[in-house]
Amino acid sequence: MVFSLGPRALAAGTKLAAFDSTGSTNTEAMDRARTGERGPMWFVTTEQTAGRGRRHRPWVAPRGNLASSVLEVLDVTPSVAATLGFAAGVAVEKALRQISVEAAMRAPQSAANDYRLKWPNDVLAGGHKLVGMNLEAEAAPNGQLAVVVGIGTNVVAAPDNMPYPVACLHAMGVSASAEDLFAALSDTWQEMRGIWDSGRGFAEIRRQWLERAAGIGQPVSVDNGVQTISGIFDTIDEAGCMIVATADRRRIPITAGDVHFGSAASTRTARK
Prior knowledge:
By secondary structure, this protein is of the alpha+beta class. It has 2 domains: 205 residues, 2-Layer Sandwich (BirA Bifunctional Protein, domain 2), CATH 3.30.930; 53 residues, SH3 type barrels.
């Protein structure tokens, strides 16, 4: 199979660059932005050898997995651009649900899957990490902001020796390919990008994200590199910050950090 855009993305004039293999789709996208590309444009491959996730952690996609990045050049501030990651999360969840239904129609024995969005930028399947996302931005020559949203999905294999549980679609009984998932994702991205509308529609994105969120109302521990904040995951606010309700009745906004839920949160708190 070859990569192709979904009908909605095609109708919107979205561009596509597909690679047999590349170091990083995010790097490909940002390099193109520096030469004047304005997007929207997708950069995709089934084999990524030098990808990076949040906080520059390695994210390698062995052949058969999906590494994808979308470039948008926007007239927004960096703080508004950051909320685009939540639109991406909803788009990914919708695409995964769509291809899971299609796979179940082809093979009725396929297991049902519960996809959840983990703040700030993961998608979980059965509590295991299935998708990682990474948003990068830099000033474009025309004074706008070049924003790249990288999305890595474990389709045929999950990485080994990870410090958290991981999942892949094929092991879950979802027989879709990376190409199948990308076609669906390009269309759900088009939908959610339109709702987001340069941040003006973030209230609706926030509502949809919270409907799909993992860990709402559960114990949570967030390590921001300086301290660990523990409490109950209450909500996300109008800027996308996680709100942690602490035992002393404070409501603390979290802008970034490593998140641990449930028993893992309690264990980490006990060790501090």
